[in-house]
Amino acid sequence: MSSKTVVIANPRSGGGATERRWGEFAAVLGDTLGSFEHRFTRDVGDGTRLAREALAAGFDLVVAMGGDGTVSEVASGFFDGERATHPEAVLGILPGGTGGDFLRTLGIPRTFAEAARGLRGTTTRRIDVGLLEYTLEGGAQASRHFTNIASFGLGGVVDRIINSSRPPSFLGLRPGALGGKLAYLAATLQGGLQYKNQRVKITLDDGEPQYKTIQSVAVANGRYFGGGMHIAPGASVDDGRFDVITLGDLGPMDFLKRGYKVYLGTHIGSPKIECQRASLVRAWPIDPKEAVLLDVDGEAPGQLPATFRILPGALRVKVEG
């Protein structure tokens, strides 16, 4: 077990349950891990900043507690661009959010007590991490890392619906009552009805440009996103490549008729759906005035043009006891 552990938790995850029940969670962690410290995130980017500070202070097990966005932010704190700043440090993951898609890929238990027990052991796994360079509204450039999936097109619209001041309802219920899966389904249905498919140019590795009409493109390190959609059933977090899943010129009725296949992972090979693999993906809007929005581990940081680069085996993750 690591000698110095910090838990970086999003107090708003789980509809605020993380903060309300922190005393209970801390007691379980104390029984399981012994001595540890904790930090709460309060704003966007805090997970990255707190992870960097913890690593600089000598913590060798940095645990992210929250949803996929929290995990992604904390993982970003292990890197300076393409360089891992503390390559022997370990990332731990505890469930806390409503989605937990990356946990599914890694096989980390969904219950808090089981996941906490998994942090006691010494077994780790080296996984790939995505480095995303992208465009902010207004044209400035920015970068960040991601552990699970970055996408563009409909997914970026869905993020903005989920995070809006008037989030979607499903059968009259709001996301706080729905849980992650139904909240994302409601937002996807709403977004799919208002979204118009977009034209993009994509290059994979050193290949020729591909010109496509897309509903969404997922650049996948993990297998699940959107509260349980099995978007990339063949993806592996340690093969040095992204699975690039293109949902092409699909209409609202296509999703209503066959959208369930994405949850089952049986959509690959269906008409207008393509799976390719690459370690470097570049994408641009055909119309430079059109905003093709990004979704990065459930967050909405910006838009195309963007470059997605894989960092093979760059991060050690605690995966079992």
How much of the sequence is in beta strands?
A: 25-35%
Number of domains: 2
Shape: globular
CATH architecture of the largest domain: Sandwich
How far is the N terminus from the C terminus?
10 Å
| CATH topology heading of the largest domain | Tumour Suppressor Smad4
User: In DSSP terms, counting alpha (H) and pi (I) runs of 4 or more, how many helices?
Assistant: 11
Proportion of residues in helical segments: 25-40%
- Low-confidence spans: pLDDT under 50, at least 5 residues? 173-177
Order of helices and strands: EHHEHEHEEEHHEEEHHHEEEEHHEEEE
The overall average pLDDT, rounded, is 89
* CATH C-level name of the largest domain: Mainly Beta
Question: How many strands in all?
Answer: 17
Mind telling me the C-alpha Rg? 19 Å
Largest sheet: 10 strands, mixed
Global structural class: alpha+beta
Describe what you observe in this structure.
- There is one protein chain.
- With 321 residues, the protein is α+β, with helices and mostly antiparallel strands.
- The protein has 2 domains: 5-122, Rossmann fold, CATH 3.40.50; 130-311, Tumour Suppressor Smad4.
- It is built from 11 helices and 17 strands.
- It has helices spanning 17-20, 22-33, 46-56, 68-76, 101-106, 112-118, 154-162, 175-178, 180-194, 252-258, 260-264; strands at residues 5-9, 37-40, 61-66, 79-80, 83-84, 90-95, 124-135, 141-146, 149-153, 198-204, 210-214, 216-220, 242-247, 273-278, 280-285, 294-296, 303-318.
- The strands form 3 sheets. Strands 1, 2, 3, 6, 7, 8, 10, 11, 15 and 17 form a 10-stranded mixed sheet that branches. The chain has a 5-stranded antiparallel sheet with strand order 14-13-12-9-16, with helices on one face.
- Helix 2 (22-33) packs parallel to helix 6 and helix 7 (154-162) crosses helix 9 (180-194).
- The chain is globular, with a radius of gyration of 19 Å.
- It starts with a strand and ends with a strand.
- Residues 173-177 have low confidence and may be disordered.
